[in-house]
Amino acid sequence: MSQTAKRNHIVVNINGETLCVRGDEAFQPLAQFLRNVLNKVGTKVVCAEGDCGACTVLASSLENSKWSSFRAINSCIAPVFLFDQAVLVTVEGVRTQEALSEVQEKMREFHGGQCGFCTPGMICSMSQLAEDCAKDQTEVTEKKARNYLTGNLCRCTGYEPILNAATHIELPKWVSLASRYLTETLKTEFQALDGDVEIQGENRILSIPTTLASALAIKAARPQVRIVAGATDLGVVVNKGKMILSEVLVLNKVAELRKLESSATQDFIGAQVTLSEVETFIRDVHPELKRLLHIFASPQIKNQATLLGNILNGSPIGDSIPALMALEAEIQFASTKGTRSVPLKRFYKGYKVFDKTDDEIAVGLAIPALTKPGNQQFWLHKFFKVSMRKDLDISAVTFAAVIKMDNNHIAEARLAMGGIGPCVIRLTELEQKLQGKTFELQTFEEAGVLAASLITPISDLRASQEYRRLVTANLFKKCFHELSVEMNPSGKSSDKSKAEAVCP
């Protein structure tokens, strides 16, 4: 294919069959395409919001001329156009031609399905579990099974038989999906398709460039075009009829936006890097941020969503924003006019109002390196998410503290909170008051009281105004106690007063 030629269709391989998808079909949610066009009705749709996992399928794509590992995704909110040159496996494709897969056999043996509606999604999530454990030569533990099934809800069977099925998977009997579907022949076929894609639907246009220069030219020519990354938020809005994607720019084929780089001065995360990839990348350099991302969302969401997408969405309860704001992260933008960096603490001007021009594309996020404990001056981190349940829930309040210690005094404090106003904010007034204060419970108690008086929360379905103020004050005490334990590995608080229950 010539450098200037543009394909007018999506090419995707589903359960071993390569398909061309044209026109309006490319804009459909993947689950609807599977069910209504291909008659693969094993994939179910319940919530259409990416919450229940009944729609789970497995996806792999070519990255740097290599197949990525299969990852579970929510097909109900993911448009078909995200899967050009991708391989998808549905519940129908998990089984071999001869028999059920090892995962399916164990679900049958341990009675893991009752009504069966959620079972296909469970099968796909457990198939990723088996695929990963077989590849890494690690055992399937109950903890792993629970983690992989976080995004799959069951309302009738109960999880005991499902977990029994997972923990009894015999990995030597598992037939690798990669060996069955990710072939060299298919790779060669896909690589021959390299080039930009442009699809015209009925009153719709879709552009999938392969270079940043091409993407910037499209954005300059059509500033109103909607950039779509993982679609884990937009997909819900479209499904609920609140938006029509008429002009779309998809960036997942732009290699420049998939960078992950670490240096002595900063860590750089490209705009198209998924949350799952970020969680792995920062495991050692930012363990507290990694802990937060672990409970950020379900595996299906994290396998599709991007970190930059969460930031640019600008929700006042965006889970990653307070932590990254306290870490002094900067967004890097590019346009046909040049590049610039915007500190995250200055990016949000109000509710859904950003320091961003219409012709710009976010290319990545830079997180400055911080001094680790061990020197006289070092940084401590603590990030909290308060929600009704631990996993897969929208936050009521989010909290981030990045504190520079000098012996037993606070040399510098960076504090950010979400869910307490129209956008995530830095508590700059409080940061100044904490500078030079002794690291003790009283300091944090007083800070919490002041913070509760400075914020402007509202009452909504997730929490009342009064609750948010109370939680804000309590989170400062919780922050002190947890940091005290980190500073004193013996587990004793650095404050002589008794530790008290501080957070619901």
From TrEMBL:
Origin superkingdom: Bacteria
Domain FAD-binding PCMH-type positions: 198-372
Keywords attached to this entry: FAD, Flavoprotein, Iron, Metal-binding, Oxidoreductase
InterPro entries: 2Fe-2S-bd, 2Fe-2S-bd_dom_sf, 2Fe-2S_ferredoxin-like_sf, 2Fe-2S_ferredoxin-type, 2Fe2S_fd_BS, Ald_Oxase/xanthine_DH-like, Beta-grasp_dom_sf, CO_DH_flav_C
Metal-binding as UniProt keyword: yes
Record-linked Pfam families: CO_deh_flav_C, FAD_binding_5, Fer2, Fer2_2
Flavoprotein keyword on record: yes
Name of the molecule in the record: FAD binding domain-containing protein
Species per Swiss-Prot/TrEMBL record: Bdellovibrio svalbardensis
